[in-house]
Amino acid sequence: MYLYTTFFFFAVGGLMALAIRLQLEHANNQVVSAESYDRLFTMHGTTMIFLFVIPVMAAFGNYLVPLQIGARDMAFPRLNAASYWLVLFGGIVMYSSFLWGGGAADAGWTAYPPLSVLSPGHGLDLWIVGLHILGLASLLGAINFICTIHNMRAPGMRLSRMPLFTWAIDVYAVMLVVSGPVFAGALTLLLLDRNYGTSFYQPATHGPILYQHLFWFYSHPVVYVMALPGFGMISEIVPVFSRKPLFGYKALVYSLVAIAFLGFLVWGHHMFAVGFSTPLQVWFMVASMAIGVPTGVKIFNWIGTMWMGRIRFEPPMLYAVAFVGLFMIGGLSGIFVAAFPIDLYVTDSYFVVAHFHYVLGTVPVFAVLGGLHFWYPKMSGRMLDRALAIRAFWIIFVGFNMTFFPMHDLGLSGMPRRVSTYTNHAWDAVNLISTIGAFVLATGVLMVLWNCLHSLRVGRIAPADPWGANSLEWYTSSPPPPHNFDELPPIRSERPLYDLRREAAATAVTGD
Amino acid sequence: MLDKATARRNIALALKLAIFAALMFAGTLLVGILVRYG
After folding, report:
1. Is the distance from CB of A246 to CB of A161 less than 8 angstroms?
2. Could A143 and B17 be called an inter-chain contact, meaning their C-beta atoms sit closer than 8 Å?
3. Chain A within 8 Å of B14 (Cβ-Cβ)?
4. In angstroms, rounded to a whole number, what is the distance separating the alpha carbons of residues A125 and A108?
5. Shortest CA distance to A6 belongs to which of A170, A141, A165?
6. Which pLDDT value is given to residue B1?
């Protein structure tokens, strides 16, 4: 249910993106009004972040964490159900704002004051209430994950043997518990300013700057809340299809924790345009660039895992390899925007839009879809249509790059973000390429969804371990029984299934 | 069914995390009040 709901919101957010791209297809276009455009980009960002990427990671986590650690279920199954229903309810509250006279929220997903304080109607109030509900869902889910991972591991499943995806969900949960309440506090103050006459965010006392600090103290870690489980998925897929152990398991775990820790120290790089003192700007710049070190460790280790491996380019591996390459493009443009002298030139331009779609867009499109192709047989008991999956991958790959790569050029030539139209015809051709790319990307995603739904009925029956994988979830049947495992194998390393296969092979050779 | 000891450990950890989250929320409100009215 979690997965279906989050993918439904993914489709809604995607439709909004298509409307945005249609509007920007050429100069002076009038597909939607300026007011509608503001609502579209606000709700597109909000939907993709809060109703798709964050909860879809929880959806995968709910399903996979108990399986990967050898538990029967999550620590608090009813809390788990409450998290799901709160996600759905929060989404309904947020989208109900379209039905009100004033329309939906229109101040961008960042909702900076004073614009957000002055935004008329109740759209922004419903947006805030919806986010509070979603925040509560995240918090309950995060607490549940931490309790499950730390208290319910099977005998032998030490922390040092835990699959990387479960590690990533653990770090994701801790980051949500630390940062989520700060965002809830910032939104509460905003709600008070809008409805009860307080003035926390009034410009005269630098209130908007206070909001930006509070907002980015949450929202920068949230970048990693979204990315780290994606990294975990890639760390599961790459060794299986390279036929090799994960290169540098411990380094990958330490880099997860290091990214999370540094993620809390760099929020100011979103605020360079505010005009900090130079030492503070230098701090945020250096700390932001320092995140490149553990991120580089990850990329190095994934490539090290593939190096000299017998790589099988099954659909999940295609998505994983694409993710590594495309995320690096986002990382490299990140070095530019982390440097405040450059950021001041490109801030609020399409260069930033290109950067964060190569960072955050690659997670849902390549890591999550890679994970979906990888675990679909386990979840459904059916195999996907391989040929269709590969065709869809290439269409998505071409569409994604057609959509977002040209935005670097648009940004560097001065096209601002968050404007409903433009007058410079020099940007027409590049915007047209980007718009066509968005439709190509949407076609690929639709093919994936069709493949998933169609294969539920007609897909080949999946064995327990169709990929020759290493972690515990592949030991049980596909789909697993309600209690997950009839019996557990001995867990003596981070690859218990590989150990079993090796023992079976040794027994077959020696006949013992 | 979970054994009692694990269930108790789960509840204790969940409560600690919930209290921590509540303190972070209250702390944020306090920062807002101090910056504006302090």
Report:
1. no
2. yes
3. yes
4. 14
5. A141
6. 65
**A349 - beta bridge partners?**
A416
B12 shares contact with chain A (CB less than 8 Å): no
CB contact under 8 A, A181 and B22: yes
Q: Check residue A487 and give its pLDDT.
A: 86
pLDDT confidence band for A506 (50 / 70 / 90): confident
| C-alpha span between A356 and A45 (Å, rounded) | 11
3-state secondary structure of A382: strand
Buried b (16+ CB within 10 A) or exposed e, A390-414: eebbebbbebbbbbbbbbbbbbeee
**Is residue A103 scored above 80 in pLDDT?**
yes
Closest CB to B6 among A139, A152, A181: A152
Please tell me the distance from the alpha carbon of residue A37 to that of residue A441, in angstroms, as a whole number: 21
CB contact under 8 A, B36 and A199: yes
Nearest of A379, A378, A405, A388 to residue A445 by alpha carbon:
A388
User: What's phi and psi for A351, nearest 5 deg?
Assistant: -60, -40
Q: Does residue A353 contact residue A21 with C-beta atoms inside 8 Å?
A: no
Task: State the amino acid at position A512 in one-letter form.
Answer: D
Mean pLDDT, range A207-220, rounded to an integer: 91
Nearest CA in chain A to B37: A200
Say which DSSP state A246 is in. Answer: P
- Residue A124 confidence (pLDDT) above 80: yes
The answer to whether A329 touches A355, Cβ cutoff 8 Å, is no
Tokens at A87, concatenated: 């996600």
Omega of the bond leading into A66 within 30 degrees of 0 (cis): no
Q: pLDDT, tens digit, for every residue of B3-32? A: 889 999 999 999 999 999 999 999 999 999
Taking CA atoms, B33 is separated from A111, A211, A313, A399, B27, in Å, by 20, 12, 56, 48, 10
DSSP assignment of A152-208, as one string? -PPTT--GGGS-HHHHHHHHHHHHHHHHHHHHHHHHHHHHHHHHS---TT-GGGTHH
Q: Provide the token pair at A418.
A: 């968050």
A185, B13: Cβ pair inside 8 Å?
no
Mean pLDDT over each residue of chain A, to the nearest integer: 92
pLDDT tens string A315-347: 999 999 999 999 999 999 999 999 998 988 999
Rounded Cα distance, A437 and A435, in Å: 5
Q: Please report the ipTM that was assigned to this predicted complex.
A: 0.95
Contacts of B8 in chain A (CB under 8 A): none
Q: State which amino acid sits at residue A475.
A: Y
The residue ranking higher by pLDDT, A381 or B37, is A381
Q: How far is B8 from chain A (nearest CA, A)?
A: 10
Q: A416: cis peptide before it, omega within 30°?
A: no
pLDDT in tens, A170-203: 999 999 999 999 999 999 999 999 999 898 998 8
User: Which pairs from A25-28 meet CB under 8 Å and 24+ separation?
Assistant: A25/A431, A25/A432, A25/A435, A26/A425, A26/A428, A26/A431, A26/A432, A27/A421, A27/A422, A27/A423, A27/A424, A27/A425, A27/A427, A27/A428, A28/A421, A28/A422, A28/A423
